[in-house]
Amino acid sequence: MSALTVAAARYAIGAPRSFAEFADRQRAWLQEARALGAQVAVLPEYLSLELAATFEPAIAGDLHASLAATQRYHADWCALFAGLACETGMHVAAGTFLLDVGGRYRNRAYVFAPDGGRLWQDKLALTGFEKGARTIEPGDALKAFAIGPVRAGVAVCYDIEFPLPVRAQCEAGARLLLVPSCTDTEAGATRVRVGCLARALENRCFVVQSVTAGEAPWSPALDVNTGEAAIYAPMDVGLPADGVVARTTGAERWAVARLDFAALEASRERAQVANDRDWPAQARPGLVHARLQAFDGAD
Q1: Pairing of strands 105-112, 118-122
Q2: Which of 43, 241, 54 is nearest to 154 (CA)?
Q3: How many other C-beta atoms lie within 10 A of the C-beta of residue 284?
Q4: In whole angstroms, what is the distance from residue 151 CA to residue 77 CA?
Q5: pLDDT digits (tens, 9 = 90+) for 82-108
Q6: CATH of 3-274, one of 3.60.110.10, 1.10.3470.10, 1.10.4100.10, 3.30.70.330
Q7: With contact defined as beta carbons under 8 Å apart, do 144 and 177 qualify?
Q8: What is d(CA 177, CA 200) in angstroms, rounded to the nearest whole number?
Q9: N or C, fewer C-beta in 10 Å, the chain?
């Protein structure tokens, strides 16, 4: 395995007046990531909803109307990020696009390769906000993919809080998890951060989390945004004791780090604990179910 320089955005939500203005902004952000040495750049969840600002306030301020209106940009979105991946030479995880799949929407995370290829991962678990919309549905497929010699997967925001799908991606070889996220409370930001740390620990993998930042009072989905972009690793010998490889602070827009996957693999041999290797022990028959035990004094 080799090393990759990855960058996670702390993306300040804007209010573009046109798709062209949105495109210029994405180009500037990704060129900045490339100038920092990034080979992989991760943008945040719900990025497509920034485009709702291109419509009149009555549409921008209504979730259902904005979801319907932004569909006209889908082809342009794909063309934009495919072009930017090629232009910058990076793999670009372009946040998520809420895509109409036959009257309902899926929160779809696209990844674009510099050779023109693309793939996607739908969000699997819906938050209360998404369920409440009554028009967003979960995805039904889990994927892993290759970025050069490194296998990767995408877990969209809330998905990183669930161990089994991420474990399945890692069992398919993923050692890099890309996590586009959007949280509006400190509690939400903490949940996703803790999920990232837990999945890195369990699977001996790197986790790259992008976030939205700032306020967008014109949008019911992007209204308030919290959290810091960060890159996480297992907490073990030769790796950060707190699991944090890099994190934005202050006005920083990107968390950037060079990740050595060969060293990560080698660290297993001198690990204090090896949660990834010891994972199957949880499936022992006596541990699958808990019994209610009375205080009867018996051994």
Answers
A1: antiparallel
A2: 43
A3: 8
A4: 25
A5: 999 999 999 999 999 999 999 999 999
A6: 3.60.110.10
A7: no
A8: 9
A9: C
